[in-house]
Model the fold of this input.
Amino acid sequence: MNVKIFTQIALMVLAIIVAPAIANAQEMVDTIAAQELDEIVVQAPKVIRKADMDVYYPSQSAVENSRNGMQLLTNLMIPSLTVTDALGSIQAVGQTVQVRINGRVATVDQVKALLPETVKRVEWMDNPGLRYNGASYVLNFIVTNPALGGSIHAEGRQALNIVWGDYFADAKFNNGSSQFEVGSQFKLTNKVKSYRDYTETFTYSDGSSLTRTETPLGGNIDNTFGKLWGAYSYIKPDTTIFHVQASAEPTFSNDWRANGLLSLSDGSDDILLTDSHGDNGLTSKFSAYLEQHFDKRQTLVVDFNASFYNGKSYSDYVEQVSDVDSYLTDIHTMIKDCNQAYAVEADYIKNWSSSRFIAGASYTANRNRSQYENLGGEIFHQRQDKVYFFAEYFQRINKVSLTAGLGAQYTDFMFKETNQGNHSWNLRPQATIAYSLNQNHRFRLSFQSWQSAPSLTETNVAPQQIDGFQWRIGNPELKTSTSYMLTLHYNFSLPKVEGTFGVRAFTSPDAITPYLYWSENKLITTYENSKGLQNLTFFLSPQVEIVPDWMMASAHIQYRVERMRGSDYKLYNHNWSGNVSIMFTHWGFELVGQYVRAQHDLWGEKISWGENLSIIQLAYNWKNWQFGAGVIMPFGKYDQGSKMLSKWNTNEQHQRLDMRMPYISVSYNIQWGRQKRGAEKIINVDANTEKSTAGGR
Done:
């Protein structure tokens, strides 16, 4: 697709929209004084279809059967969402969902700390606007002002057959216009049994080939981390919101290890191998937020974020013939990172009755220092700077809602040691048109575009050895890639059934993908701006109220076809994926069953898929307590893996875990006294440090 064409179309649409006369007062993200535009209300469950979001209002039964925000989200049964409380994850069709509370970017743990009765509504955006800066999905909890002075939420979940657990606590205290918050989390995963099914075939440049089949001999996974945070907010209604937060997030152990026996097609002796990689370190974060309201419904928002990472990533790969003391291959990679990230954003917002204008600018800086112990302590420095400007206009005209905007991003990165780097300007047009046929049928056509800058791993020129003859080297000549997506939604509401049917077309004409080639006797993996990925997806997301207030089901089913082209290859992929959830609630009990079939994604010359999962959980709510028990993977076989289709390296890998895991959980949520509402951020600029990635097959 041509950027100039999209830019011209976006500007034409923007000109058409701005032409009508401007009137008075549109709803913002329910910050301080909010008024709602007239929208279409669908009963049971209550849903408002807007031009840029679906708004879900919790029913009385959903609130009564919930003891925290995560359980409330589960009870809402939003069709395209996969909410896995036991694993602390919220995803949409296998992708990460950006979670917000009153417009402020939040974590799953902060969602858990919400009191269900304070959640006014939940906004679900599957085509976020330009101010969300490329997020695929956004879930925003709008929380009212509790008339209480404090709250405490604590929760613990422990497996019965392995060393796995999740523990969380959060407390809020209020004094006048001020609110103080402290919280902590500890997640424990220690020596969970795992193994890998792996087969690979290498084809050399002279046409000869070698197949290596790995028989698993066991392995394990560690993933133990913690988090401490504290926050302060000052709120002067209708005038000022000020919020600061600091956190420390240690990763104690994040390690994956596999042992196997390699059989070679050339008749050589079998090889014992050990393959492991992981990381540990500390990430510290600080954020400050100011929201100032002016006359004539104008708002200025400024947000600052900083993060600092000190840690190491490592990879060990050892091959050895049985009964032989020496090693065929002995590779140890250790990278120590000292990285920083800073970001600041300022937005101006102006509202009228049936229209809205938003304009903003942001700056993000990453400064990375990586020391390679396996290269004699050699140090590499990389800097990356991004500048982003955008403007977006919304207009409602009777049954039609129109949104159009244009963003521009400048990206620049450079390696100090080699003086290699790249920079580019990219445009980001976006437009949406929604039409309401009647209160039960609505159509929405949206166009999105966004940029993806090269990562530290993709551009780092330091060579990393993966195994006996595979190496990885970054490419500092990479350019920022652009992606485009066109989506048509049809929302319907029938008695006891509501949902969405849609078609999505996606293209990334210069996607950054891995590229393999032989150099003498080494198989090198580097990165390139490919010839592009295109895919077409059909999806259906229904929600069914089977027995009012007793039994409900939701699902998301999709079929995708796609094509990927790069240097010397053209590949195709198609597959079904989705999730289904069913929930029974009565007499304080709640039984939830969930099944997830992961989406298979083609990227470069690899097809990869996430977790295929099944979960059953029974919970009982009593006063401020919730007691639960469940099983992860009660049926089926855990599978997460990939398939490589390169002409030089064809392989298939299945990661297996001992995930048939019964667990129990207890949570407690209490509130008291008089409490001011939490700070309600309209924007949240992102400043996440990057981490190096050590080798690994």
Notes: The longest strand covers residues 209-236.
